[in-house]
Amino acid sequence: THVGMRQFNVVLLGAGGVGKSALTVRFVKDQFLDHYDPTIEEEYRRTITVDNELTSLEVLDTAGAEQFTSLNEVYIKAGRGFILVFSLTQEASLKEVENIRQQIYQIKGGGTNVPIVVVGTKLDLQSEREVQHATIQSLASRWNLPFYETSAKRNWHVNDVFEDIVRQMRERYPPE
Ligand code: GDP
Ligand code: MG
């Protein structure tokens, strides 16, 4: 039988200004702009080959700046995979990731294995760095989640993030 290309949706969540749009646009269009309209929420689509298998990804770049917005709940209900984004240059944005992570498990049901990747952004801004590698490493291992340190500007490790989430979603949602 013919098996069509699998399709998944992934939602980027995180505090305002951490670089969700930059990461998305780097992945989808291979571009970096210095300014993205912080109020714009957009859904993109791209295909990606992971382990020799082509997958269609729908990527939702959210724009909510407020934590615990009711919109978050809508996104979480609709999303199959989540990229939780914080900035390595802003300690407070890591707390926001912790909140969102809890919110996801509340909504999806505790104990569920939800595909999630944690991403620290702006790795190129070394002198502004506030979150140390060891900090995020111990948090992520406590959460049992993979994490990546990235730069959308320099295109460091951006693809790794999306490949990881695709692998997780394939495993979590096997074809019928
Ligand atoms: P969002 O609100 O989470 O969507 O954040 P944006 O993607 O709009 O990024 C906020 C600001 O951080 C913008 O001025 C971006 O140009 C900048 N930015 C995002 N990613 C990077 C990065 O990897 N390196 C550097 N140096 N700046 C970045
Ligand atoms: Mg944005």
UniProtKB/TrEMBL annotation:
State its location(s).
Cell membrane
Q: Which Pfam families match?
A: Ras
Q: Could you tell me the membrane topology recorded for this protein?
A: Lipid-anchor
Q: Which GO terms describe its biological process?
A: signal transduction
**SUPFAM superfamilies attached to this UniProt entry:** P-loop containing nucleoside triphosphate hydrolases (SSF52540)
Q: Which CDD domains match?
A: Ras
Task: Please provide the record's keywords in A-Z order.
Answer: Cell membrane, GTP-binding, Hydrolase, Membrane, Nucleotide-binding
Q: Does the keyword Transcription apply?
A: no
The record's Gene Ontology cellular component field reads:
plasma membrane
- Keyword Nucleotide-binding belongs to the record: yes
By its UniProt entry, which NCBIfam families does this protein fall under?
A: small_GTP
Listed name of the protein: Rap 1A
